[in-house]
Write a structure and sequence with these properties.
By secondary structure, the chain is an alpha+beta fold. 34% of the residues lie in helices and 28% in strands.
């Protein structure tokens, strides 16, 4: 179909097709722009995971895992789930920035997942910045154990940097 679209995982490609109306361009061109942006975001995410010594996992179970996680959705949004705290988990959601049906940035200090989150499934919340996400493409956790405060700070920093980089990709590729 297109140079970048052809690089996408099949499920991501199908998901991006549903987002083309949000881009001010003919459908096929919009799909290629979204695909190019997605490929760049995935590369940025992968590089940051390596830099921060994080590891990819297939699922995140908040009942079993005291630490936090960083998630990349099929739509290219970032979901950050902080380490377990007394009142829940600090949770943030940074959208792809072109959709009008989701907030660009939403945060909750008392986030609570409805259950385990697995690659390919949506993240659903009892309490949180959103009710549910797009399907999850990748889940990363820190390889080294650290205290909750240190992990929270590092996770917040990584999320902020990724959100800024992803916004820049949207500005340069999608918004042109």
């Amino acid at each position: 179909m297109g140079e970048y679209f052809d690089q996408l995982d099949e499920k991501v490609a199908e998901h991006l097709k549903s987002l083309t109306a949000a881009v001010d361009a003919p459908a096929e061109e919009a799909l290629e722009l979204l695909s190019k942006a997605w490929v760049e975001k995935e590369e940025i995410f992968a590089k940051k995971i390596i830099e921060e010594k994080m590891e990819l996992v297939d699922f995140f179970d908040p009942e079993e895992e005291k630490g936090g996680a960083l998630l990349l959705t099929y739509s290219g949004s970032i979901l950050s789930i902080g380490p377990e705290g007394n009142e829940g988990r600090n949770t943030s959601y940074a959208s792809i920035g072109i959709r009008k049906d989701v907030p660009e940035l939403a945060e909750a200090e008392d986030g609570e997942l409805a259950g385990k989150v697995a690659v390919g499934d949506k993240a659903e919340f009892v309490r949180g910045p959103i009710q549910s996400s797009s399907p999850i493409y990748k889940i990363a956790i820190f390889s080294a154990e650290m205290d909750a405060e240190e992990e929270e700070e590092l996770l917040s920093e990584v999320t902020q940097l990724l959100a800024e980089d992803f916004a820049e990709v949207n500005r340069t590729i999608i918004s042109g």
